[in-house]
Known about the structure:
By secondary structure, the protein is an alpha+beta fold. The chain is 31% helix and 21% strand. The chain contains nine helices and eleven strands.
Amino acid sequence: MKLLFENWRKFIKENQSGAIDIFTEVAANTMSAMSVFKDDGGLAEEVGQYDYVASLASNPDPEIVEKFTNSLYAGKRSGFLSYYSPAELENMDLYLINGHDAGFAIKDGDDIVSVHNNSELRGLGSEFLRKSKEVGGTKLDHFDGFLSGLYRRHGFTDVYAIYQWDEQYKPKNWNYDQVDINNPETSVYAEVELQSEVEEGGERFVQFKDLEHTEETIEVKAEDNFEVEINPNLKANYYRYGRPDVIMRKLT
């Protein structure tokens, strides 16, 4: 049975870190990755044909750490995305496409972060996920939305935590774009399994739109049977106004 995480307060306690920083870190990773994957349909070299340079946490290369820092923050949104310091990046495995401001990092040995492309190259999303898995990346985090369906298609189908939006910890400069909670490509709640029905011995999957006027807290199973208590009406409004949940995923 999966654990229930009610909100960010429990996330703070478990991570021994400030909620605002956590929100900002996930927001930075989300916005950076979205800018890469939204142009994934563009022309690109054959997957696997790129030349990478790397700095490993076990043996940092100061020159590559500097290049990665400059590459990560070379884009128009660099002010918003400036989350990891050079000292923090030095303790990660950093991968850059040789000669280009495009790459990703592996934090703590398996956490894929800082996927970015501030170069003239296009269509790098699938390549970065392929390469990151090749070098040990097995998990990632993101705000629910466009990335949900994309990461699912790339094998990150094990939803191991969901942290619900808490307005007091909202990330600075968040874009608040509407997220379609009824679309499986953009939401872990599009189809849910009612816990009450399961307990009575009969599984019943329903579309979220059939629940969203419910104003009481109910237990549901979201994507990958993740158990969570939600107020459907409040949840629908949060997504409508660009306040989705944070999703933690691992490779199956």
